Backbone:
């Protein structure tokens, strides 16, 4: 017997198998050898040269070694190199001999001799799990979404119609009021109308009655409601905008000029980092779209989804508006989906904005007969006299009688026709706006998958990490307990047998989990009976 080929053979019981779904990671050869030696069931020496992936004739009864599933052996030909192999089969040869078929564990045998070069990484446990860093779609079933109201950080709940003013747009300022001087620009657009503001419906009604008595309500072109916030006073505005016309018992104001849309309010949204009310995921990808997001509704048929991860820092919305019938009001996310910009200034994202429902316009009545009499009461007698005089001059007595009667008849006929005209309604006819009556505008919801689905996906991520789809060197030894790697056509190099390189490559392409924590091998995070997480740290 060639003494140089005498080998050591140890039979072990370890939690590894030839499927290579799970394997062990060691920082060095010494740690690897120590672990496997701690699992020895039987040890033998004095063997002749052992051919790789061949048979071992063990001088022992099969009943004494049936609980072994692994082999580590050493050949003097390879100096101090240890080979590790799976036991594929055992056969009884005699009472003092058992034939064992072995297959090399290519991962453990060459763990420190091969390298994974940059490859296409399909999945892995990522080193940096910052929210929003990993958003590649997973294609997982999410089930139905559940809604919860969003927590608002400021004293604003998006119900901006809690207090409103009424605006009349008139062609004349009426009642001998002195309109402020200046360019009549509203929202940057010139207007030849005057905008009068009233804090209560009663005060607005009193003004309309006054102009019906003194002038005519035909000067009113529109009446509409605006949120209190749109009654914007510039910072340099001096004095009280509200005044009481002389001899009147109501207050009113002129709408100040403005060149741009008026900033109304903003709100910050609290991100408490959970799904379905209370579930806090271990994997932060579950805190991104499509597992959770914000849904904003204008309660009039339009909705918009907003992704938490696309906000730049604070989750904030702004609302701006312009004064007009119905009011044009828009909610915009602040510093949203801006990407990496070379500029410090990141404005609101108007493209991602959501228009508010229109506020109702107001109606008012117009008594055309009363207005006509008011405008012509002084002129009617003069018309009659003028008709008689004109007739006398032109045609004598007969002519005077005929002309006078004709003018009188014509005038009386006009009065009669005007008296038949009904009281007409003007302005908006849709006064029953439900959203306005309820004080609603925008409603924000935290929308997420149910806890049931969140747990399923969280456990899936615990086992298989995230979809990465990048060409890179796979992460290694970056987690506390374990990590998973799956490649497509992995690039493996090493001064080892080609057949083993191909086998290692297939292990990575099929997906492989490395475990550093040998005590909790294949034990994934789980929920204890008291709700705490067992083995939460990967």
Residues:
């Amino acid at each position: 017997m060639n003494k140089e080929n005498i080998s050591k053979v140890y039979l072990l019981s370890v939690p590894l198998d030839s499927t290579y779904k799970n394997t062990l990671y060691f920082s060095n050869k010494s740690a690897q050898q120590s672990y496997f030696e701690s699992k020895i069931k039987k040890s033998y020496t004095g063997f002749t040269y052992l051919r790789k992936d061949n048979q071992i004739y063990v001088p022992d009864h099969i009943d004494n070694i049936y609980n072994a599933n692994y082999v580590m052996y050493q050949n003097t030909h390879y100096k101090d190199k240890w080979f590790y192999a799976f036991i594929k089969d055992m056969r009884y040869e005699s009472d003092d001999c058992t034939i064992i078929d072995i297959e090399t564990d290519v991962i453990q045998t060459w763990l420190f001799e091969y390298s994974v070069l940059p490859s296409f990484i399909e999945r892995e446990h990522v080193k940096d799990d910052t929210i929003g860093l990993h958003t590649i779609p997973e294609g997982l079933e999410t089930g139905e979404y559940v809604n919860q109201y969003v927590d608002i950080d400021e004293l604003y709940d998006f119900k901006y119609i809690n207090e409103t003013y009424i605006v009349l747009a008139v062609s004349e300022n009426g009642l001998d009021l002195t309109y402020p001087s200046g360019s009549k620009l509203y929202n940057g657009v010139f207007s030849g109308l005057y905008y009068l503001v009233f804090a209560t419906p009663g005060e607005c009604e009193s003004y309309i009655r006054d102009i019906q008595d003194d002038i005519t309500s035909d000067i009113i072109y529109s009446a509409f409601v605006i949120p209190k916030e749109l009654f914007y006073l510039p910072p340099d505005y001096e004095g009280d905008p509200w005044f009481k016309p002389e001899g009147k018992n109501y207050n009113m104001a002129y709408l100040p000029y403005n060149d741009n849309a008026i900033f109304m309010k903003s709100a910050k949204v609290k991100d408490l980092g959970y799904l379905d009310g209370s579930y806090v995921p271990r994997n932060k990808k579950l805190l991104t779209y499509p597992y959770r997001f914000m849904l904003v509704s204008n309660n009039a048929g339009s909705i918009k989804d907003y992704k938490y991860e696309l906000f730049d820092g604070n989750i904030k919305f702004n609302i701006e508006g312009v004064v007009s019938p119905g009011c044009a009001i828009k909610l915009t996310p602040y510093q949203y989906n801006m990407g990496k910009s070379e500029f410090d200034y990141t404005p609101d994202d108007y493209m991602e904005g959501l228009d508010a429902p229109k506020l109702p316009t107001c109606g008012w009545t117009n008594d055309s007969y009363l207005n006509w009499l008011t405008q012509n009461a002084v002129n009617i007698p003069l018309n009659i006299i003028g008709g008689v005089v004109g007739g006398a001059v032109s045609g004598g007595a007969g002519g005077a009688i005929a002309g006078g009667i004709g003018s009188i008849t014509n005038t009386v006929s006009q009065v009669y026709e005007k008296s038949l005209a009904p009281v007409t309604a003007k302005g908006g006819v849709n006064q029953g706006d439900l959203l306005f009556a309820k004080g609603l505008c925008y409603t924000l919801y935290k929308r997420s998958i149910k806890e049931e689905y969140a747990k399923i996906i969280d456990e899936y991520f615990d086992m298989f990490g995230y979809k990465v789809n990048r060409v890179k060197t796979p992460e290694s030894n970056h987690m506390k307990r374990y990590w998973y790697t799956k490649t497509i056509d992995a690039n493996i190099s090493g001064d080892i047998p080609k057949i083993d390189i191909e086998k290692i490559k297939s292990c990575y392409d099929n997906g492989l989990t490395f475990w550093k924590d040998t005590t909790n091998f294949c034990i994934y995070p789980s929920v204890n009976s008291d709700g705490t997480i067992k083995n939460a740290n990967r």
Notes: The radius of gyration is 44 Å.
